[in-house]
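PT: before anyone asks, these are the final sequences, not the draft ones from last week. 361 residues across everything. Please model them as a single complex and drop the result in this thread when it's through.
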Amino acid sequence: MHLPDGIVPIEMALAGYGASAAITALALSRIKSMSDPQAEIPRVAMMTTVFFAASLVAIPVPPTSVHLMLAGLMGVMLGWFCVPAILVGLFLQAVLFGHGGITTLGLNGLILGLPALISFGIWRTAAQRWPDIAAFCAGSLAVVTALVIFAAIVLAGLPVTLDASAERVALGVFLLAHLPLAVAEGVIVMTLLRMLRRVEPRLVPHA
Amino acid sequence: MTLRSRLAGLAICAAGCFTPLVALSHAALIEAETAQAIRLHAFYDTGEPMAHAQVIIYAPDDPSSPWGQGVTDRDGWFEFIPDATEGRWSVQVRQSGHGAMAHVQMGGDAPVIITASGTQSWLQRMVMVALVAWGALGTALFVLRKKGRSDASA
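LR: through. Structure below.
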């Protein structure tokens, strides 16, 4: 779920860069205020690689297929680090795989960065009491939130020359096809965190 | 009835018989000519065709307003015949927020040059993933080493 170049007007793409820069600045200021942010770098590097490679995994949802997003996992595992990590991952995906555009990098950062931060909030709030539920909700809601932001941006940027009703129908089919992904990513995050809590609890933040 | 009036009556009957025939007979004509068409195949990187996706065509002399529009067929194919305008024609295919742009250079006797994003093989993709993983691993090890040194000196 990446916006390619040329899909939205350039004004929207610039606004996306502005909003993404604001969120990144906020995230960096929070990271700077941490006691030892350098200690998190190895984990951030590894998770960025996982996020980068995840876009290659296509899950068949007839009649189409959907790609893994892992925004929820990024938010849970990295906290505020998820914003710069997702931006780096998106940049690499755009340059190396052609997934998403360079002009729309800011908008794509918002589409996946904001849900990741929401997942981080859910996990931080509820991880102590209901870790499994919190993990599942973090993974699933990230997908749903990303879908909502993606659809809103696409609809807001529809050119007047385009058949808007046909595009809305196609977008509806696209969103429905991604609903199983919401469940799948919820299960992935829940399973992974459950496994990490047993094997290496130090890797699980806020648990 | 005189011969003159008979002839006049015959002329009126003939006009009455033939005039409706002329009015009703829409002759179908065909003029055939050969033309250079551009045919596109739009598909996702998973190989699925972009069925019934919207197509917007931009002519070289006005890249901001569409020259023509259309819809791909169920297999993702679309074709059109550009006019004589020389230069770079741009064709965008989009569907549910996804899409791609292809450029077709048309001009004189020069060969048609088509530029569009190509697909990568799985081997290429795996090499890229491995390179990024290597870069991340290097970053992680570099930070850990640096941190270990600073901890030791403290």
